[in-house]
Amino acid sequence: MKSIKLFSIIVIMIFANGILKAQTEIPPELLEIFMPASGSTIDTNTTDGMAQVSPYCPRLSPWYTDSSFFMINPNSIEKIVGVNFFIFQKNDGSANFQEDDTEHIKIFQDIEIALNNRFKNLRQLCGLVNTDTKIRFVCTPIFVRNSDLWKGKERHLWAQAFEATPGSPNGINVLFFMHEDAYVKNVIENDSIKHWEKEWNTLPPSTTFFNVPYLYINAPNLFVKYHWMKNWATVQYGLPWNPAIYGWFIDGTVKGLAHELGHCFNIRNNIVPQNYCDSANIMNPVGSSSHDYLSDWEISIIHRAFAVTTARKYVHDQTTLDAPLVITDSKFIDFDVRLYRDIVIESGAQLTITCKVLMPSSGRIIIHPGGKLIVDGGILTNACSDKLWQGIYISGNADMPQTAQYQGVTVLSLLTMKIFLPPTTLLLERTLPCGEFWACK
Predict the structure, then answer these.
(1) pLDDT of residue 32
(2) Residue 370: helix, strand or coil by DSSP?
(3) How do the domains of the chain map onto residue ranges?
């Protein structure tokens, strides 16, 4: 097993897919750690799921708050989201899950499998259309030997520095640290009374400072709970560790993790359930909930987060794209957004961009004859720093007059671009003066 030295000893492993299901219903008292009480989750969202307004762009476009603009459908392309599991050990490598323990490694493998299964197979309640959220997680367990981090000291600063290190895996940071008193009582002294019940919580995403904050989930005492369930839950419930209690442990962990990821994607707690669907909701803070349902509106909030909040930087580049954004009349984009599809501007239509638009590496903007793209002080660039997007394709007829009637038009005013401009291989990485481009293809 390969070790990489980065601030401390780290082992990185990525797992394959599979299926794991809990054997029987989990007793509610074994779920309390994962669902924080009302008000305990760090949550700065407003009531409609929108965060504070950025001073950089006006955000007056109706698209900014239109859930249908971000909404998926059953034919949408999956988004791959990175998640880093930081397992903090003591300096000697003890006191948490072990990278060379077969069962411990299988736990993180099964968590990834069950997490993906939950977001892929929601329960179809209350007219839900999208039982598949189209979100898939790639989880990377990272074992770190540092006694201060094991206690949770400065864990956020360390994880943020790790994320900023070139070559480190890109992912939402889940921090598995320890409360020392719980570890001593339940692991060292093997007390039969639960001492591991500490709340998990989350830093919600920002729609303002895209390059500064990062997303993390505080997940204390998971190893303590694992030890207690393996040694005492088997006795108290008279069931074998594997598959029954082990299945409870995995399912309970995934319920909590899915809930906190929901906060990372800008969904609020469903504090006062109004019906059965609310009770089954992943965002229900009550631990005994089934946590296998999200409404279509909540799913649209998640995909909005992948477009306009810091959550977007954890989504892998897409080479296969969703159906294009087709412009048929006059529209404008005045908000900072990451797109996962082409833009097509039809004849007689106009799109004006005055803010930043991030394009996928396989994406392009297509302008048909009579269509017009205006970029006035906006930025067109690639979503992933190591890949360029495909640029602006201006459609037209070389045998006809070079007018808007027969050619696509692009008007660039103080545009910042980093693109290839087909059919040439011209790379533009500078701010351009005002001008109008006419081209044929």
Answers:
(1) 38
(2) coil
(3) 4-314, 322-438
